[in-house]
Specification:
The protein is an alpha/beta fold. The protein is built from 31 helices and 31 strands. Helices cover about 50% and strands about 15% of the residues. Helix 4 packs parallel to helix 5. The two termini are about 60 Å apart.
Length: about 850
């Protein structure tokens, strides 16, 4: 139990820290804003949203069409073209405040076009924003703004500038383009109404919502139409937390002059790179992005983001329902306090607690959680207050504990002593029971004999479990095993007697030349690690190493990523971009999952490999590059052809040197050194038990080293959460832990017995009789499952499977095992239909799983699935 006084000290301390965090709230908020900016940048930029298209005028365009201001008949032309192309909503992000006295006919033309369109939204702006109560004289015109019954605390606007009256009356909607401290207010108060943002009005017309169906509250507003409801959440002051997609490159922006030229060319039957029809049923914003004429705002990605881009981002957020949501301050205080209470309990309760390490583990986990929630749910969980409070709380309590609490007894040593004491007691008891059994058998006391045998079996099982637990406490020390001396080559951990030794020696031989390398191996075997080792061991090591996952990108995006693109090559290509091959010039490029690319793309890649030259997407200039290519795949490509495989000519070009990485299940000798290395990487003070290392060597590791690392990371966290510095079997996942619990289990006993009987005709019956409590069916099913397991582990090689199962090379035994194995496999696949999908064949073959022990189901599924190939 935790001493009450110590707990009260902890509660008082955390309360004080929370008060301090409130006093210095400006510092906390600034820290959270900086962290949020880093999250955006780590997350990276999103693809441009296709629902909003920006047609912009830059400085060159403005000069080309006669300078500023642009003639209003030009705007009328743009609106007319966009309506002909089927744009659903047109936003004119240009303040047309005063009528054109010199050319009133242009005003009339623009007004008539806007009125006949019915889908044009114009902008206005307030001269200033405040938090004061609105001036009663500052009233909105009758046709603008919205009435709201609810008391809202939005920003107040002063001196609203609107389009000239005739144009204002013709508009389908009108909204403001004001910012306040880099935030966008959805509504701004006036004396009698609230005035909407430009993006809000675009959304309203796009959704088909009537002004009367707009529902405004203090926390959100809803646009309600017959087909959809769009919800826009905001803070109490009415400002939106924009979920920025990225920098300027994420805007679906097209130069207006180029767009009109493309339209004109298309009307004449010509072909153009700009798809003007993409505006159909979209929101199109016409605006200016030009130095000295455009408002630029700072975002997490850039300090120069055009204001029109913010309006587009808000529209995209609303349509995709992915506005940034922020954890409320009051919940932050409550959660920090609750976590603080947990830390108080943890620090004051556990023995030999390393407070700073636990703090680090928690804060890293909490930061990862905050980042993950941000990525997955667009939800910002602030971390600054948590970091501030928990760091100082842990340090303070550790100092307090050091001063007032004496060193406690070592839990691990006492546990070990208790286990060995129980072992001795059970061994003594077992000896006595066996003596009693001998006496009972001599006296032919059947009832007593049966009872004693049952008791002896119970004690033997108890001894087995206790022995396993005792081993679980013993620390595995690799230094005691000189044959397992770990070797480290460029972070590749292996032993001299393991299969990776040959791989590493081969890498050393081929590293310092420029020939292509193809790495083959299952997922998680370390293909990128080998690629990096080749690069770091070569003469190119001072140059870039660029890794590209070909399987994660579409063909179009992959081509752009690898070869680069020119400005205007496609929608969103607002500037020239060098490809990964150019960035890797002089160094090494790693093409992971290269077999996932299409044949058409492989032809383009082949040219780069053969000629050392490429052309950017949309470009005509030939660019020469000097790059060493290292490729990788988890597919067997020796005889590959067709879809999702490498062309033969590309295979031969890439496979100058081929490296086959062995799966972890074939590196049993390396597993102890890998486990120790990964544990040390997670926590240098953490150790691992002998029992855990033994079971690691027995496990099949379908996820290879990546799975091993994941299991160890999990185990370290669980061990530390219990104040232990040793990983034990309880820290492992159930599927691995079961191997410990089943040590010496019935399957091993059955196979050993059958081997001793050389798999004779009567072997199954004799084994069932020998292993009391089993019948012939159970023994036969375990043998069937063991055959399936061995067959899969031997890569479905019949001969090696037979040898492994038989255990000896005696010809008669081999022949009996062969007959049994072929019978089992033939029966397993008899219902497989090659025209059906794997999951359908597994479903049809469900009767084959009946009575088969659960742990062998995976292997039977694997055989059924692979039989189709």
């Amino acid at each position: 139990m935790i001493n009450l006084n110590k707990s009260l000290v902890g509660v008082a301390f955390i309360t004080l820290l929370l008060i301090l965090s409130f006093i210095f709230s400006d510092f906390i908020k600034q820290a959270d804003e900086n962290i949020l900016t880093s999250k955006f940048r780590i997350r990276g930029e999103s693809a441009p949203d296709s629902s909003v298209i920006i047609l912009y005028l830059d400085n060159d365009d403005i000069r080309a069409i006669g300078g500023w201001p642009i003639k209003r008949n030009y705007y009328a032309l743009v609106i007319k073209v966009l309506n002909e192309l089927g744009a659903k909503v047109i936003g004119l992000d240009i303040a047309l405040i005063n009528p054109n006295v010199e050319r009133p006919e242009y005003d009339d033309l623009l007004t008539n076009v806007v009125k006949s369109s019915g889908n044009v939204v114009l902008v206005g702006y307030f001269t200033s924003l405040t938090k004061d109560e609105p001036n009663l004289k500052s009233r909105l015109p009758e046709k603008t703004g919205y009435h709201t019954e609810e008391k809202v605390y939005f920003y107040t606007g002063e001196k609203l500038n609107l389009p000239f009256p005739k144009l204002l009356d013709a508009a389908g909607g009108i909204g403001h383009k004001n910012f306040y401290n880099f935030k966008v207010p959805v509504f701004i108060r006036s004396a009698n109404k609230v005035f909407p943002a430009f993006s809000f009005e675009l959304l309203r017309i796009f959704s088909g919502a009537e002004k009367s169906s707009v529902n405004i509250s203090s926390t959100d507003t809803r646009l309600i139409s017959e087909s959809k409801i769009i919800q826009i959440p905001y803070e109490k002051d009415g400002t939106i937390n924009v979920n920025y997609p990225g920098g300027v490159s994420t805007l679906n922006a097209i130069p207006l002059v180029e767009f009109l030229q493309a339209y004109s060319l298309q009307q004449k039957g010509g072909i153009t790179d700009v798809d003007v029809n993409q505006v159909k049923n979209k929101i199109v914003i016409v605006g200016v992005i030009a130095e000295g004429m455009t408002d630029f705002v700072e975002t997490p990605y850039t300090k120069q983001f055009p204001a029109v881009g913010i309006q587009a981002a808000i529209i995209a957020n609303a349509l995709n329902n992915d506005f940034l949501k922020i954890f409320p301050d009051y919940w932050d205080f409550i959660f920090v306090f609750a976590v603080g209470l947990f830390f108080i309990y943890l620090i004051l309760k556990l023995n030999d607690l390393k407070g700073l390490l636990i703090l680090l583990a928690f804060l890293v986990s909490y930061s990862i959680l905050s980042y993950s929630v941000f990525i997955i749910f667009d939800y910002e969980i602030p971390v600054a207050r948590m970091l501030f409070v928990q760091i100082f709380l842990t340090i303070g309590l550790l100092i307090y504990k050091h001063q007032v609490i004496k060193e406690t007894v070592y839990k691990l040593e006492s546990e070990r002593s208790a286990i060995f004491k129980k072992l001795r007691e059970r061994e003594d008891k077992l000896i006595k029971l066996e003596k009693e059994l001998q006496n009972a058998e001599q006296k032919n006391a059947a009832e007593q004999t049966a009872y004693l045998r049952e008791e002896i079996n119970k004690y033997k099982e108890g001894l087995r479990l206790l022995s396993s637990e005792a081993v679980d406490i013993n620390v595995y020390n690799i230094s005691d095993k000189p044959k397992l001396k770990p070797l480290n080559f460029e972070n590749i951990i292996y032993t001299q007697s393991g299969p990776m030794n040959n791989v590493v020696e081969f890498v050393k031989k081929i590293a310092d030349n420029d020939s292509a390398v193809l790495i083959l191996g299952e997922s998680g075997t370390g293909k990128e690690l080998i690629a990096r080792a080749i690069h770091r061991s070569s003469k190119r090591k001072e140059k870039p190493f660029i890794a590209v996952n070909c399987g994660a990108l579409s063909e179009t995006l992959l081509e752009s990523e690898l070869f680069g693109h020119e400005k205007g090559a496609f929608t969103g290509a607002v500037k020239d971009k060098p490809g990964r091959f150019e960035l890797a010039d002089g160094g090494t490029i790693f093409l992971d999952e290269v077999a996932e690319t299409s044949e058409a793309f492989q032809v383009k890649l082949l040219r780069v490999l053969q000629e050392g030259e490429l052309e950017r997407v949309g470009g005509t200039e030939t660019i020469r590059v000097n790059v060493r290519v290292v490729a990788a795949t988890n597919q067997n490509l020796v005889s590959s052809s067709g879809s999702q495989k490498l062309r033969q000519d590309l295979y031969y070009r890439l496979g100058v040197f081929v490296i086959n990485l062995p799966p972890l299940r074939d590196r049993k000798v390396d597993i102890p050194v890998l486990a120790e290395y990964l544990v040390n990487m997670e926590d240098p003070k953490m150790k691992i038990s002998t029992n855990v290392v033994d079971v690691f060597s027995k496990y099949s590791w379908h996820g290879n080293i990546r799975e091993l690392h994941s299991v160890i990371k999990r185990a370290v966290i669980l061990a530390k959460s219990e104040g232990r510095d040793i990983i034990r079997s309880r820290d492992l996942p159930e599927e691995i832990k079961s191997l410990i619990e089943n040590t010496g289990d019935i399957a091993d006993q059955i196979i050993e017995s059958l081997r001793n009987k050389k798999f004779s005709k009567s072997a199954i019956s004799e084994t069932a009789k020998e292993l009391e409590g089993l019948n012939r069916g159970t023994v036969s099913e375990y043998l069937r499952g063991y055959c399936f397991k061995t067959f899969v582990e031997q890569d479905m090689n019949i001969e090696s499977t037979i040898t492994t199962i038989a255990g000896i090379s005696e010809p008669d035994t081999i022949q009996r095992v062969r007959k049994k194995l072929l019978e089992f496999i033939s029966n397993a696949v008899e219902l497989v239909d090659n025209t059906k999908k794997p999951e359908e064949n597994i479903l049809v073959s469900k009767p084959k799983f009946k009575n088969l022990p659960q742990k062998y189901h995976y292997y039977l599924e694997k055989i059924i699935t692979d039989y189709q190939k």
